[in-house]
Give the backbone structure.
Amino acid sequence: MRSSILRDRLGAAESLGTVLSMATILIVEDEPDLAEVLRYNLEQAGHRTLVASSGGRGLEMLAEESVDLVLLDLMLPDVPGTEVCRSIRRSSQFGKVPVIMLTARVEEIDRVVGFEVGADDYVTKPFSVRELVLRIDAVLRRASSLDDDAEQEGAVISFGELRIDQAAHRVWVAGEEVELSALEFRLLVTLLQRKNRVQSRSRLLDDVWGIQADVTTRTVDTHVKRLREKIGVARDYIETVRGVGYRFVSAPPEPGSVPAD
Ligand code: CA
């Protein structure tokens, strides 16, 4: 319910051409000055804020309140932000809430936004508040469009040159039907449904193959390669994220644009 309310707000804000507003953002940050700067600026940007000064308190507040997004500091006094993020993702109650990690450690970023921790995005300290507000809006929009995709499950999905009939398990590329195995079909739909989010090889193994990673993660690479060959001109929609996995692009490239490779 919460997400549909948020979407209505997003829709209203977009139609007015204004900055979207009124998300509830939980700030988990132990440095009081920084927490205050964040609180002030996010409220100026039209959001409602909650502040927790430890990871444990943050998780308690998530259980108590309806939160649309979490800003999570990596270095916290009780548990590391990465551990808090994992706990959020494991929760059946609030496991889907978007998380933006605040970190001073650039070398942690791959891990943070990858499967291992599961944050949606990150901002490195020191950061500009304006940039952070833009990131927050982008993550909220993405979360809202993922909800839309989930609601349309079973329907026909169109994305650039791709058309997928989920119920019939049929796929067309540029109007031509292509034959995919059941596994390739699941792989394609899973990547598309999580577009713009990096999917690690082990996450794909769990979710597409449905097995705990006994099979080597190289299996994923082999199948992605085969899938790309089969979908021809749509192959560039699936990007390789080095050292992590794959990501479906957020939007199809402009017609006539030159492929990246
Ligand atoms: Ca800190």
Q: What stands out?
A: Residues 129-151 form the longest helix (23 residues). The chain has a mean pLDDT of 82. The chain has two domains: 3-145, 154-248.
